[in-house]
Amino acid sequence: MRTFLTIILFGLSSLTQAQELTDTLTAVVLDAETREPVPYVSIYVSSSCGTISNYDGEFSLQCLPFDVLRISSIGYKKVSHRASELPDTILLKPVASTLRELTVVGNDDVLYRLVRKMLKEANKNKKAEAGYFFRLTTQYPGTDELAEAFLSAKSCVQLRNMTFHSGNRGMLKEPGVLDNPDLKGLGHTNMHSFLYLAPVLAYYNEWDFAIVPADIVLSRRGKLYDVSCTAFTEEDGTEIRRIQVTGKPASADYVILDGTLYVDYKKCRLLRFDGLVRGLYLRAFDDARRRVTIDTVRCELHVDYRHDHGFTEIANMSGIVVRDKVMLRYLLFNLGDKGMTFTKSKRVGSNMLRTIDEVGYDSLLWTTADIVKRTKLEESIAFGDTTFHMPNKSKYDVALSQQERESVSSRRAPCNCIAACRRNS
Q: Is 80 exceeded by the pLDDT of residue 282?
């Protein structure tokens, strides 16, 4: 009888823990000084349990009450909270108030050592692959669109060879809004090309015309950059080098990626990159005028890296692309050891959204669809569009027109509706 009662009590305890695990914790991360949201903060419990904050600094996560959430972002002091004691608002203190600045003369060749090491890693681990959750939100007058997908990709140093396994799309339009041929939205897009962009490119793909920080080491366009370096030491003794790479005036005629790299100096590891693509134009087909148009675009890029597999791997990536009245915001999150069980696979071609439509909706994968909490805008699209979670739907005409096919065939970059091009092209 005693043994029987012990088994019953153990079973009830396990059932209680399982029930507690399904409770979702929700919080928002703010800058302690400005009280502004801090996006894309890492919330880590284990290799199979974690997430990042969304664009509004919000996150949600399922975990046990005794789990410890480690919350971190480069430039802020790390904090930890037991799940049962997690506050609704988490304040992160900027490094300026918590870290000691060091003086560094020149760049101390850390960038050279870093790039060489990463290129060796890319060659050694070129077959390494990871699963990702992807989200793309587009806003233009009168219409908001949302695309979400699960995909896998080669993940060492930079992303490549993306394969989609399940996807979903939704749209909200204001009543009475007339279709504007100049604002087509996501009907045709190769926005996945931005996911291939990184400060170190081991495989250039369609970005071979862009100048990135690693090109200083590779001597392709080294004279186009100014490089400066400062350092600070974190509370655990980790020395961080902050390398600022800025395009010189002579770089104005090139597509150039400049920004800030954060490097673990002793281990020579790239931790994060915040950058801006300058000199970039988008080439799009204008249905109304039956011709290709070229417009300026502003593109911000953020990449975090992980090293728990013994090499530099994309942990998460996010960006904002603005063209005239259209704004696109994307994020990509490494699923770590969560794993994926999928029944369909489709290698991305020149049109990302057509690929998402073709693989369709797999309900087994979408049990973790909230792995990165949606913003209020994204929630409004997902729940406002009643067809959002219908399987194998395709409510968009994603076939290319004759004019678009002719436009594509004349370009250098393998793109459908949107292509990056040089200034003065």
A: no
Q: What confidence score (pLDDT) does residue 254 get?
A: 87
Q: 384 versus 103: which is more confidently predicted?
A: 384
Amino acid in the structure at residue 223? K
Q: Return mean pLDDT, the chain.
A: 78
Closest C-alpha to 128, from 162, 161, 154, 157: 154
Distances (CA, A) of 259 to 33, 145, 275, 376: 24, 29, 4, 29
| Residue 269 predicted with pLDDT over 90 | yes
CB atoms within 10 A of CB 290: 11
Pairing state of beta strands 79-82 and 68-72? antiparallel
Burial of 14 (0-12, 13-18, 19+ CB in 10 A): exposed
**166-209 pLDDT per residue, tens:** 888 888 877 655 455 444 444 456 778 899 999 999 988 788 88
Query: What's the pTM value of the predicted model, to 2 decimals?
Result: 0.82
